[in-house]
Amino acid sequence: MAEMKTKIGEKVGTYKIKILSPVHIGTGNKLTKLDFIIRGNYLIVLNIDKALDFLLQKNPNTFSEETLDSIAKNKFSWDHYFPEGKRIPDELIKYKVELNPNIKVKVRDIWEAIKKDNKNLYIPASEVKGFIRTAIVYKYMKDNWNEFRNKFQNISKKFKKFNFKRFIEEENIFGSALQDPMKFLKIEDIYGQFEPEINGAKLMFSPSKEGLTDYIETIRGGSLSFTFKIKLWEERLKGAGRIGKYIMNWKEACYEFINDFLEAEIKFWEDVANGNLAGYLKSKNSKIATLFKQATRIAKKIKADLENLKDENTKEAPLLRIGKYTGYLDHTVGLLLRDLQRYSNPQPYNLAPLGNDIGAMKAKRFLFPLTRRITLDNQTLGWCKLEGM
Fold first, then answer.
1. Residue 308, exposed/middle/buried by CB under 10 A (0-12, 13-18, 19+)?
2. Residues 6+ apart with CB under 8 A from 148
3. What DSSP state is assigned to residue 87?
């Protein structure tokens, strides 16, 4: 049993999370070439203070103006001081991370992943709770869509650019910060045997940033967490109005949100694979044509992966999608807005018609969102499965 009642009105569930695809939860900090050295298929992150002290003790004149300039421009390389074959003293090494074998270029900087004590990767409770909150809002609004649809009709009059967070605050779905019933859903930070890997998150379809790849520290797919607890105060949620029952049934909300999202994404990659977006292949914008031509080569593989994920998603053991690089539709309730478009739209993944209608975009577009990223080994990022114990 995943859940049991302890105190009156308190339900405690014990769970594990299985990582199904690479997950990046960042610190916001970039590792530059001063921070690491690459040896074979490993990235070695150095303790900078100790490494610099080590070199200065060897030679007080180690760092010339030219060297300092190369550090400032992120062109510095430790290879001059520790050439291939020369041992790097253990005390200078902070940690090692395996490189994904598909990295074929010299990496200049890497987005760092959050760690406990600067050593072990973990998943902050806020990351999971943020996803659950989005799923609850999605299901709540979907179930009460007739009510919200009328409010959305005048969307362009209300905001120059629609802001979901602002709308939810104005509609008072969760109440004020002090009243917020989500405080009656408590989640522990999640630790585990999380295997790290350096991978790349490539932006697939934005012509203004063609081929943009961010190199990132990730939790490798296949990793499994230790057990953690989720507590729910049902008695208090019963007094939280309509939203309270949705919080109590948070797993069902996650299941439905992910199911609807996957149906839209599977259709997108099916259309790419079958040439139903052929207009982009013939676009006068050569960058757009190139991006979609590249995508057709991997579309069937990604579609099959998403179909497998859909099979994994159940009401009792739903999928979650967490971390950075998971895309616009996983961080908003944007899928609901398809219903507002003035004409029948056979593309459930495309919000461009609505965006053009309300003037929410700087330039007229035919496809939105364009924030899909894949790893260097053609995986979508951020997928996890919640498993009850």
1. exposed
2. 141, 171, 336
3. P
Distance CA 336, CA 319 (A): 20
User: What integer best gives the mean pLDDT of the chain?
Assistant: 83
Please indicate, yes or no, if residue 114 is contained in any of the structural domains: no
pLDDT at 13: 92
Token pair, residue 50, equals 């100790």
**Are 25 and 322 a contacting pair, CB within 8 Å?**
yes
pLDDT tens digits for 252-305? Answer: 999 999 999 999 999 999 998 988 876 666 666 677 777 778 888 999 999 999
Q: Is residue 113 in some structural domain?
A: no
What does the alpha-carbon distance between residue 311 and residue 253 come to, in Å, rounded to a whole number?
17
Cβ distance 323 to 382 under 8 Å? yes
Q: What φ, ψ does residue 110 adopt, rounded to 5°?
A: -140, 135
The angle subtended at Cα 289 by Cα 286 and Cα 292, nearest 5°, is 150
Q: Is residue 333 part of a domain?
A: yes
More confident residue, 173 or 222: 222
CA distances from 358 to 59, 335, 361, 363, 371 (A): 64, 16, 8, 12, 20
pLDDT in tens, 93-137: 999 999 999 998 888 899 999 998 877 999 999 999 999 999 998
Predicted local distance difference test score (pLDDT) of residue 293:
81
Per-residue confidence at 363, pLDDT binned at 50, 70, 90?
A: very low
- pTM score, whole prediction: 0.88
pLDDT tens, position by position, 317-352 = 999 999 999 887 877 777 877 766 555 566 788 877
- From 264, 307, 106, 287, select the one nearest 204 (Cα to Cα): 287
Q: Same domain for 63 and 184?
A: no
Q: What is the DSSP letter of 190?
A: B
> Are 173 and 273 found together in one domain?
yes
CB atoms within 10 A of CB 163: 13
Does 228 share its domain with 101?
Answer: no
Contact 388, 18 (CB under 8 A): no
AA identity, residue 368 = F
